[in-house]
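4.2 Preliminary Data

To establish feasibility before requesting continued support, the project team ran the inverse folding procedure on a target of 164 residues. The structure was first converted into the token representation described in Section 3, and no sequence information of any kind was made available to the design step. The complete token record follows.
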């Protein structure tokens, strides 16, 4: 199920999503450093890639890492721990295409999908709400920032999956 799947972007062509491996770490860490105020460390990614989580990368036709997702799956609940689109691909509907593809896959194994997002990350919040996520909670002062603390908003998406 999590092997490899493709989607088509109107401008960028065929994009491939596949499981990340340790060979992807240099690209993954570079994108992570560019994308977060408090990026994950290499050991976090190594642990996730080695089987703790589902780690998927979105690649261009030239095999450039465009984005990635780290998903935790426990019984019939999934949590999107990380969802990142590299800066050059933001604002081009790449995130929407990737997230939509992930939701379709997760829908086959989970009843709900949760995530946390910085309250100030308006583009991400807009994307999540467009995909049907609803805010279900808030964690005050959750994220450290250079200017103090920032709230985390908790979002959930109910899926159609019915466990046997």
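Position-by-position output of the design step:
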């Amino acid at each position: 199920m999590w092997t490899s799947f493709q989607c088509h972007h109107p401008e960028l062509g065929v994009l491939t999503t596949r499981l990340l491996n340790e060979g992807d770490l240099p690209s993954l860490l570079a994108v992570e450093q560019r994308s977060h105020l408090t990026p994950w460390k290499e050991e976090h990614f190594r642990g996730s890639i080695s089987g703790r989580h589902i780690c998927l990368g979105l690649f261009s036709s030239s095999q450039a890492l465009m984005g990635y997702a780290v998903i935790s799956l426990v019984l019939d609940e999934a949590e999107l721990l990380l969802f990142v689109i590299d800066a050059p691909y933001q604002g081009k509907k790449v995130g929407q295409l990737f997230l939509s593809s992930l939701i379709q896959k997760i829908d086959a194994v989970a009843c709900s999908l949760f995530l946390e997002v910085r309250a100030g990350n308006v583009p991400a919040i807009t994307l999540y709400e467009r995909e049907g996520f609803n805010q279900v909670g808030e964690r005050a002062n959750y994220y450290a920032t250079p200017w103090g603390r920032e709230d985390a908003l908790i979002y959930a998406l109910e899926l159609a999956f019915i466990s046997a």
